[in-house]
Amino acid sequence: MHIITRKRLNEFAQEYPETKSALLQWYQLMKQGEFNSIAEIRQVFPSADKVSKLTVFNISGNKIRLIAAIHYNR
């Protein structure tokens, strides 16, 4: 999967260092993955939810939420 920028993740991790390892793990799994649907994402991230055109991930034991726009056809 192509991730446009990691900057926001890094900025958030600097402000909230306790989330750094969980955000890094999410980034690495998404970068390595090839997902064609929300069902495939849920195989790796069972708590991921589709909300309109966005996907919401619970990160760090549901302490934070990461909201992403995912284009499966690219």
Keywords:
3 strands, alpha+beta, 3 helices, 39% helix, 74 residues, 3-stranded antiparallel sheet
Question: How does the SSE layout of this entry go?
Answer:
Blueprint: H1 7-15, H2 20-32, H3 38-44, E1 49-51, E2 54-59, E3 64-68
Antiparallel strand pairs: 1-2, 2-3
Could you characterize the architecture of this molecule?
Helices cover 39% and strands 19% of the residues. The protein has helices at residues 7-15, 20-32, 38-44; strands at residues 49-51, 54-59, 64-68. It has a three-stranded antiparallel sheet, covered by helices on one side. The model has no long low-confidence stretch (mean pLDDT 91).
Give a short overview.
By secondary structure, the chain is α+β, with helices and mostly antiparallel strands. Helices cover 39% and strands 19% of the residues.
Q: What's the total number of strands?
A: 3
Global geometry: globular
Overall mean confidence score, pLDDT: 91
How are the strands ordered across the major sheet? 1-2-3
**Biggest sheet layout:** 3 strands, antiparallel
Share of helical residues: 25-40%
Q: What is the chain-wise order of helices and strands?
A: HHHEEE
Total helices: the number is: 3
Distance between the termini: 9 Å
Number of domains: 1
Structural class: alpha+beta
Oligomer: single chain
Q: Estimate what percentage of residues fall within beta strands.
A: 15-25%
Radius of gyration: 12 Å
Low-confidence stretches: none
